[in-house]
Amino acid sequence: xxxxxxxxxxxxxxxxxxxxxxxxxxxxxxxxxxxxxxxxxxxxxxxxxxxxxxxxxxxxxxxxxxxxxxxxxxxxxxxxxxxxxxxxxxxxxxxxxxxxxxxxxxxxxxxxxxxxxxxxxxxxxxxxxxxxxxxxxxxxxxxxxxxxxxxxxxxxxxxxxxxxxxxxxxxxxxxxxxxxxxxxxxxxxxxxxxxxxxxxxxxxxxxxxxxxxxxxxxxxxxxxxxxxxxxxxxxxxxxxxxxxxxxxxxxxxxxxxxxxxxxxxxxxxxx
Length: 271
Prior knowledge:
Blueprint: H1 8-28, E1 37-38, H2 47-60, H3 65-81, H4 89-103, H5 110-121, H6 132-151, H7 161-176, H8 178-181, H9 186-197, H10 208-223, H11 248-260, E2 269-270
Antiparallel strand pairs: 1-2
């Protein structure tokens, strides 16, 4: 390696402050509905903006986080199989939400999905009336649902990192002890990082268990938490207790991908 080139550790450290700042802002503005954050989705249809659109609509629909994660996974997988310019990406996003509700048994009524996505895309618009526009949009979502399912070869049930994250966090709670564990918001922050990572199609590039471990390790780095008893493990990294095949280089690569997710986040303005 060229001595002048920054190491992986240095690159991550340079991004760490930005991530901490983002997390601090998220604590203040976690509920997007209560803070009146307005994003004009009509001016852009890039992957990140569409992901934000799915997140916002999911919150408005009171969808379960796993339902939102499923919708985003469907969207990213579909985008990798098609030419995006040939599709109405907001229609695809609405359809992914509707389909995700079915997959995760999270009852999202098609009329609610239609009204929420329409109002979010066109701010201030009234609910759709039972007319030509309503039935046209409803039929478009049904047809898009069939298109997505066929494009993904009917493989629409995924193993999410969330279940691994829950398992690892429960193990960590026992590992740390209740008193020490309660000092740091490791669980809450790890889940926030994991959910936000679904803004990026890079969430498809790594095994779900490795993504969960990367989110936990990034959280430990942010808060400067040292995993107890590791001095007695003959230099075995803590994450190899859960996944023997995961290397330190791969773990930090995923951590960097998680942090890069925050880079394109647009500025938002309060009304």
